[in-house]
Write a structure and sequence with these properties.
Distance between the termini: 23 Å
Strand content: 15-25%
CATH superfamily of the largest domain: Glycogen Phosphorylase B
Shape: globular
Radius of gyration: 21 Å
CATH architecture of the largest domain: 3-Layer(aba) Sandwich
Length: 373
């Protein structure tokens, strides 16, 4: 019996690229490949211009298509080319990720493709977008929710919103938490100039909605030992003015470390040995980085936004978005006291969030889409 052929579109890439959707794909699709799906991920070739371009990764086939690296055009052009490629390849399922690519769901349907759309976040709420871009993203949300054979959302917050706005009964498939094991190795910490249990960590793409500047303000206000540092892990478009502001702040304070994009053993060590993980963002879809931090059993603080509040965390772990004085107080308190609840939170997250379960539910969504008229 032929394996189900699934083409995945909407992410920058599944290998060596940072982002929530990219992490989602890295965790999900190797599992679906093991479950008998023939998965083909379409990657944006400019992100792999200076390195090797493997054709397969953990059982997932990789295809590279060009796109302009320009905000507003990159996703639209790449999704259009990807849909045209899918029309030629004739997969059983075309899986579009995010509401921007959802704009092409009607076109994919017109070409006779079976379409799944996963809604990861209300991207039109991101501060970097102007009125026109926000309007296009809202239209993409509408198209994706109405024209997909099956819609998926990653949180109950999103499920309630798409039901209210569009009357769509989307499947809720939350992101999973990795089966992380803390490592004793600290070798890679040396290049960041930090020591175990002597730094605050934030892992997030460096953009305005992640509000790393709020975290810098709070870190500088907090009365904590002078040896402690703040490590910001994340990639950024260096043409973004936000990068300039972060670079200036780091240049003015040697306790602030811009670590760039990290993965593999380096990221594992950073998670394993941080004294505190903080996610200060003003919006999320379903916060994978926060789930990762919890899976390592480290103390965490997070902004009190709906997407974070649904996680199994005590209310004293949350702070109001933008309230740097409250965040500074919580950083100071967490650093000063031993956190005895981290392991309990780790077990709770593992019990509630599973990538294996997400893979089974996604496969079920594929089967359901194939039976729809």
């Amino acid at each position: 019996m032929a394996r189900m052929h699934v083409i995945v579109l909407g992410l920058r890439g599944i290998v060596q690229v940072q982002g929530g959707i990219e992490t989602h794909a890295r965790m999900l699709y190797p599992l679906l490949a093991r479950m008998g799906c023939r998965v083909e991920v379409i990657q944006r070739s400019p992100y792999f211009a200076n390195g090797s371009r493997p054709r397969e990764w953990h059982g997932v086939r990789l295809r590279y298509l060009w796109c302009p690296v320009r905000p507003g055009l990159e996703t639209a052009v790449h999704t259009l080319l990807g849909v045209l490629y899918a029309a030629f390849a004739r997969p059983d399922i075309l899986h579009l990720h995010a509401i921007g690519p959802g704009l092409l769901a009607p076109f994919a349907r017109l070409l006779g493709l079976r379409v799944i759309v996963t809604h990861h976040a209300e991207d039109y709420r991101r501060e970097k977008w102007g009125p026109l871009a926000k309007s296009v993203l809202k239209l993409g949300e509408r198209c994706g929710m109405h024209f997909a054979h099956q819609t998926i959302v990653v949180s109950n917050v999103l499920k309630e919103e798409v039901t209210r706005r569009y009357g769509v009964d989307a499947r809720m498939i939350p992101n999973g938490a990795p089966r992380a094991l803390r490592t004793k190795s600290c070798k890679r910490l040396e290049r960041f100039g930090v020591v175990a249990n002597g730094y605050v960590l934030c892992v997030a793409r460096l953009e305005m909605t992640k509000r790393q500047t709020d975290l810098i303000d709070a870190f500088e206000l907090a009365n904590i030992p002078a040896a402690w540092k703040l490590v910001l892990v994340g990639a950024i478009d260096r043409n973004d003015p936000y990068w300039s502001s972060l670079r200036q702040r780091a240049a003015a304070n040697p306790r602030i470390v811009l670590a760039g994009f990290q993965n593999g053993q380096s990221l594992r060590e950073l998670y394993s040995h941080c004294g505190l993980f903080v996610l200060p963002s003003s919006m999320e879809g379903h916060p994978i980085a926060l789930l990762e931090a919890l899976s390592y059993g480290v103390p965490v603080l997070a902004s009190a936004i709906p997407e974070n509040l649904v996680l199994p965390l005590p209310r004293d772990r949350f702070f109001p978005v933008g309230d740097t004085h409250d965040l500074a107080r919580r950083i100071q308190l967490t650093v000063a006291t031993a956190d005895h609840g981290a392991e309990d939170l780790r077990r709770a997250v593992r019990d509630h969030y599973s990538w294996r379960r997400a893979a089974h539910l996604t496969r079920s969504a594929y089967d359901g889409a194939l039976t729809k008229a």
